[in-house]
Amino acid sequence: MINALTHSFVWVLDQDEALEFYVGKLGLEVNTDADLEFMRWLTVSVPGQPEQQIALMVPGPPALDPDAAEQVRALLGKGAGSGFIFTTDDCRATYEALRAKGVEFNEEPVERLYGIDVGLRDPFGNPLRITQPAEGPIQPPG
After folding, report:
1. Which of 2, 15, 52, 69 is the least crowded, having the fewest Cβ atoms under 10 Å away?
2. Which CATH number characterizes residue 86's domain?
């Protein structure tokens, strides 16, 4: 039986730029940065949570052939990448701290049914959200 999710993949066009964003601005930590000769294996995670890593992958071999890699790069340019939802204890304070580091947001924090939430994109167009979960059980409207 499956017992854990350990890695998620996100396509990036430049791994050094991805490091600057995910580590330098968002504050994630590097788990692995290894030259495997045929590719660079680069993973980051939320501090203190190394069991759930994000692999920052450049479209190309061995995962993709050249044609598929080009299609992925084109889709990224249109904002059709994969993304993540991060949580925080204080969405508004996190928003202000990240804005001060130069992170650009799509919106300001908004109160929603499930908590306070804000959206942004990484430098490659991947959608990200930062959410301060609501306290207690979520009650659907109506």
Report:
1. 2
2. 3.10.180.10
CA angle 43, 56, 33 (to 5 degrees): 40
Query: Tens digit of pLDDT for each residue in 5-23?
Result: 999 999 999 999 999 999 9
Q: Is 15 left (phi over 0), alpha (psi -120 to 50) or beta?
A: alpha
What confidence tens digit (pLDDT) does each residue in 25-67 have?
999 999 999 999 999 999 999 999 999 999 999 999 888 999 9
Residue 41 lies in a domain: yes
Task: Kindly tell me the number of DSSP H helices and DSSP E strands found in the chain.
Answer: 3, 8
Which residue carries 């203190």 as its tokens?
48
CA neighbor of 58 nearest in space, from 41, 44, 45: 41
